[in-house]
Specification:
about 80% helix; about 400 residues; mainly alpha; single chain
Length: about 400
């Protein structure tokens, strides 16, 4: 009997220990974010700071931030689904020139300039290309969060930034393909295999459009007749995660799959209920994403390579911001709008981690280089809220 009691106690203690990271993450978010917002630093920086404290470079309570980051990426997926719900097809079509005009110009020019900076820093041209193009991909999570908190998603300036972010999310697909083609291990990949991969990707898009136009609305109407709220919530998550999974297995971006599903449901009679069902999960997982980014910052890597990382962060952010500002001004944006876009979009983003990991897996870059690139992007994300505060002091609103 005593042995059984001891075994149960040990099991209970074990389960209690499993809850420690969960409780710590929830506590970090609920304590840090209100404090940082109260002192004017914003919720994003609060999450990043809390994550750094909990991660391996802090008190070490979370030893595997990569696993948390993979799960938390669903927050970005859910966020883009909600954005898609606000983008009716007609409205999205009206933004086509901004998405494929402004977006392409900004990505191409910034990518070329940042690749050149990488070469000047001593990287091989191919490695500099990977570094630069990864940094071009702005953090959708940070920019969307900031615009949402300020109520500027629907403003003309906000719509331009959303358009560029959508193009950058699309750009991760060909960039991953290019990295795979440049990798030394892909010499035996046949043209037939590449065409098959392209066909699978196109098929996934067509299938999702068909399901969205013909199946989803009747599906939700049928479920609504049951009048069970949790079933509708489960169905909403099924649609979002199912679309993300479909695009992921087809070699596309999970976030773009969720966004397209949102666009297809934007004219549905259940639009507002879907948004209400998904919103709590979106907020929680997006906060977890920022916590995971903070935990992923390896201060030992920063300490060993602080000179290179410092130069990379400063040069990449300044060059990217300058390119964004000049392009915005050339395309008739005023000084205030161009400066705001440059500051908000001057950092790297979450898709850079995907690109760098793919390059490392395929042998294009080694693990230390991947760590340096990742640290550069994370630090740029941490700096962004401070840059926004500085911009407010330099250009106070009337």
């Amino acid at each position: 009997m005593a042995g059984e009691v001891a075994a149960h106690a040990a099991e209970a203690a074990h389960h209690g220990l499993d809850l420690v990271p969960v409780v710590a993450l929830l506590a970090a978010g609920t304590i840090a974010v209100p404090i940082f917002r109260r002192i004017g630093l914003g919720s994003v920086l609060g999450y990043l700071a809390a994550g750094l404290l909990l991660g391996p470079s802090g008190i070490g309570l979370i030893s595997d931030p990569a696993s948390v980051l993979h799960a938390a990426e669903l927050g970005v997926v859910l966020f883009l689904f909600i954005i898609g719900l606000e983008m009716e097809p007609g409205r999205l079509w009206s933004l086509r020139q901004q998405i494929f005009g402004l977006g392409v110009i900004q990505v191409a020019v910034s990518g070329a300039l940042l690749t050149g900076i990488g070469v000047l820093l001593g990287f091989a041209p191919v490695v500099a290309f990977v570094f630069g193009m990864g940094f071009v991909l702005t953090s959708t999570a940070i920019v969307m969060q900031i615009l949402g908190e300020r109520g500027e998603l629907a403003t003309p300036g906000g719509q331009k930034m959303v358009s560029v972010l959508l193009l950058e999310d699309l750009a991760i697909v060909p960039l991953l393909a290019v990295v795979t083609l440049m990798a030394p291990s892909t010499g035996d990949v046949s043209m037939t295999a590449r065409l098959v991969s392209f066909g699978v990707a196109v098929g996934a898009i067509v299938l999702l459009i068909f399901l969205g136009r013909r199946i989803m609305n009747p599906f939700f109407a049928l479920l609504a007749q049951a009048k069970v709220r949790e079933v509708m919530t489960a169905a909403a998550l099924l649609v979002v995660l199912g679309a993300a999974l479909l695009f992921q297995v087809s070699g596309l971006s999970m976030a773009m799959g969720a966004f397209l599903a949102g666009v297809l449901l934007s004219t549905s009679t259940f639009k507002h209920q879907l948004e209400a069902d998904v919103e709590p999960f979106r907020g929680l997982l997006l906060g977890l994403f920022f916590l995971a980014v903070g935990m992923s910052l390896d201060l030992s890597v920063v300490g060993e390579n602080w000179g290179l990382i410092a130069i990379s962060v400063v040069s990449y952010m300044l060059v990217k911001a300058a390119a964004i500002y000049v392009i915005a001004r050339l395309l008739k944006s005023d000084h205030a709008e161009a400066l705001e876009r440059a500051v908000l979009m001057g950092q790297g983003g979450e898709f850079a981690f995907v690109l760098y990991t793919t390059a490392a897996t395929s042998g294009l870059i080694d693990a230390p280089t991947n760590a340096i690139f990742t640290a550069t992007v994370i630090i740029s994300m941490v700096i962004t809220p401070f840059a926004i505060i500085g911009m407010r002091y330099l250009m106070p609103k009337a």
